[in-house]
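Exercise 3.2. Students should predict the tertiary structure of the chain below and write it as structure tokens, then compare their answer with the key that follows.

Predict this chain's 3D structure.
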Amino acid sequence: MILRRLASKLYGSIMSRRNRRFDQGRGVSRCGRTVISVGNISLGGTGKTPMVRWIVEHLATMEHRPAIVTRGYGARPGQEADEVMEYRDAIPDLPIFVGGDRVAVLKRELPDHPEVDCIVMDDGFQHRRLHRDLDIVLVSSHEPLDRESVLPAGRLREPPEGLARADAVVVTGSRTIDQALAARIESFHGCPPVAWCGHSWSGLTVYESDSTREEDIDWLHGRRVVVRLGIGSPETVRSQLRVLGATLVSERPARDHQPFTQAEAAFLSDVLDADAILMTAKDWVKARDVLDLNRLQVPVVVPQLELRFLDREAALGQMIHDAVVDCLDRDLVDADS
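Answer key:
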């Protein structure tokens, strides 16, 4: 524990020096498009994927042509990362650029996509080499910002004081507006959260050997469920199952972004004392190429996740609009210069 705390202090010091260098503009590149970054300061579980999708859809309503750039974390050689597959399933026609060096990826891809006029960067708060015109940071309503340590002793990627450089903080996973959390965020960020949102299940997709069908979430009421949750915040799924009246009989442990294995497929094929195997879309996009539905004794159920705003959705939408307009005005000025 002592060694981890010392390592955390060293890590925090390195991050602070790194951020000071980027604050001075050293090593930062522009890509010639409006860039909206969505990130966090903790290890997963804040709902970046649903937020990125919401922003992309919002930009489309403004008649823009967005693309997503993402690191593609957790992908095996020759395979796509889970969030990339999720995006492709949800928005098939959307350009998605993948690579750890976001600057190099955009330099390579954008010439072949002249129609793209704005970029949404998934998990970009710490990837500071790419200039962003709007920096949105997500904070989970369950995250104890002032009681958590930085890596490796805790779950924070950087100290909470890093929120000060964000343009906006959005609270996710919330059921109510927590004034105490708002005050803690303001103490680090300088402003209260710009918006509050939660995540809700709008329906279920049920996969069986001979069919795929949609069901209402009440389908889970009274059913016994086995889960496989390779996500950052599995407790949110467990909580939702309890609310819906399902019984969690077994859980296959998995790390966030963990690939789906043949051993897991064999385990799930032997499930008999349950009515369903439930996994998130993030898990399903990896499992579907490994699982043989014909060998399963029970169906696989995948909840359809939606972002639900509790407050100030319009305020966040206005910030996105202003960022795009400001970037376009800047480009016009530069063109006239």
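Discussion points: The chain has a mean pLDDT of 91. Residues 141 and 223 are 29 Å apart (CA to CA).
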